[in-house]
Amino acid sequence: MSFAFPFLKKGQRETDAASKFTDEHEIYQLLADKEPGGSFLVSKNGFWHGGIHITENGAGSKLDLKQGVRCIADGHVIAYRVNRSYPVSQLGNVQVPYSTGFVLVRHTMEFPKGTTLTFYSLYMHLQAYEEYEQDTAKAKPAYLSALAQYQITSSAQDKPGASRTGQASDAGQQGLNVRSGPKAGHRGSAPLGVLPQGATVSIGERQHAWGKITDAHGAQPYASKVGEVPPATVVGGWIFMGNEHGGPVVEEIMPEDAFDRVVIALSSSGDAGDANAQGIAVKAGDLIGHLGRFDSLSASSPSATRMAHIEVFCDESVKSFIEQGTTWVGSHSAHPDDWKPLGLSSEPTLLRIAEGTKLYRNAEQAGAEPPVTGVVQRWSLAELARDKTKQHTEKTADRSGRKMNWWRVGSADQRGQAIEGWVREQNFACGTVTREFAQNWVDFTCIDGAHDPAHTMFATTKAWVDFANHASPEDAKAAIKLSPMMQAVYRKLFPQGDGSRAADDLCLSYAGESGHYPWLMQAASRLIVKHESEWANPQKWRQLYTEIENGTTNPQYEEEQKRIEKLVWWDEVKAKVAGFPGPDVFHLHPIGLVGNFALQNARSISMSGLWFIYSHEALAGVTNRLHWPGGASGVTLGAGYDMKTRTAADIASDMVAIGIAQDTADSISQVPAYPATTQAASRETTTIY
């Protein structure tokens, strides 16, 4: 399966295109510098936090927010909630908007063959639908189409055919033909009936400009011919969804009952061939949504905030999955042929530099007093290979016949100061450097233990209140006051710590000092921690507010409780999705997970190799297609769509099939008369109007 980081990097200049992140370290630095709240595992206020936050004014300043939040891995959307407009909290005379919108994606990882892990990625606080209506240029995620209905417009002017005796249909009987299946062009197969103008249908499967009807919402079709019996149902039939007679034949509308409720995306049709039986398919890097409003309820100064919360979780099976994976790697890493059936490279993809490793001043030369690492560091080998100045290959092969690489890497010393130098990727004389497989889950650790039901990091809610109020007990911040689960986290992140200020250490552990890399944040990204989800059991917070208020009433806390009750969704999903876990789940760092797996198949490729793929995909029908996203956008020709080898009629038919109006399609079909244009179209992806 493929992985992708959940956002794109902003171009250096306003006109530069967004680009993908390829280095997880860059993201940790960005989060440490720009997101002081909402860190993984522990918030700055001492609460459990199972994900990461991205805010518009924080990390968003370095991201291309127009590109939205992206899916982290291949999977299926299984549930979502879309706000029509933002609900509001009321603080005195001030209305404070917040988003309860979310998308939940289910992913399945398999390694080795027959061993699977189901995990989930969650994207909370997404943009309300009214903002898509206000900014029509902003891209919508594909799952919104599942909520949409489509109304037949006045541009749909199909009519029932004449009767056997030649009687024509009534002038008012116009609409859109329903056919048994999609075909090339807009004509399709024989009509089953005609949907009247104004009728509304829901669409499931799509093929080019055609859609399969899943619900007719009570529409009464006309018969396909005068005098015949209208079809009993049009569900299962196909309609053309492109342009005719100067406009679109269907218009997307959103029913009001689609909003502000948990929608389960798994189809209940019972049809084994139903494309949505597992949910709505989504690929790594696909748009999930955009940052939504989540304004602060601070009584002193409610502030406008756009943000998204991203988290990953799974059930108990993660422990056995990791164990079986590492066992398999240990037995098969030296046997390249064993990896082929898995579709994975037999070469390790990660470089691990252990603590206590010397970093040479130059490749193959230690130099004077080489710096020594005080932390564990990991790099993607594909990422290191991007910069050829940081790679050196030995001239002589070793006993295995392999010429070893040296890599220039960054790390930190015992004081956390940045250091840099060269290491040999294997059999390094001055430390432990190993090449690792992503499937070995190197340095990942599962942590399980009791925790405060009110989701503080302490063993009891009262202990958190003492800490928050700066109470006098000297041990208020000590490790012994933490929950057993948080004590285990502390020991992993601060193995040399005495525990006297453990609470402060954890609350501040993810904020990197100015100019320093956030090593603790990186270390936490390899912890897989079991904890009750924030999105279940809203009653858990009442105990906390009771302790805080101590007999008084605070309007802010009352509004917080109301928010929480609207934010939760867990029970609704569990009741309708088979196999969905209970709320006590293991949480994984989204960036740590993607960083471990994202570049496992990355390889450099020559121009000759690119052309080989390009030309063969054209023959296979991959790039020899037309694409038209609608609106004023141009028609894109794939590399293999050579107009010179097609007739004008064929080209026009292909254009109409993707939704282009007939008159425009006829004009485009004449382009082959111009050899220069045709030559360009056969060699590269080209937009021609």
Automatic annotation (TrEMBL):
Entry-linked InterPro entries: Lysozyme_dom_sf (IPR023347)
Superkingdom to which the source organism belongs: Bacteria
Any one GO biological process: killing of cells of another organism
GO MF annotation list: lysozyme activity
Span list, region Disordered: 155-191
Keywords: Antimicrobial, Bacteriolytic enzyme
Ranges of Polar residues composition bias in the record: 164-177
Keyword tRNA processing: no
Gene3D superfamilies on file: 1.10.530.40
UniProt entry tagged with the keyword ATP-binding: no
Name by which UniProt lists this protein: EF hand domain-containing protein
Lineage, top ranks: Bacteria, Pseudomonadati, Pseudomonadota, Betaproteobacteria, Burkholderiales
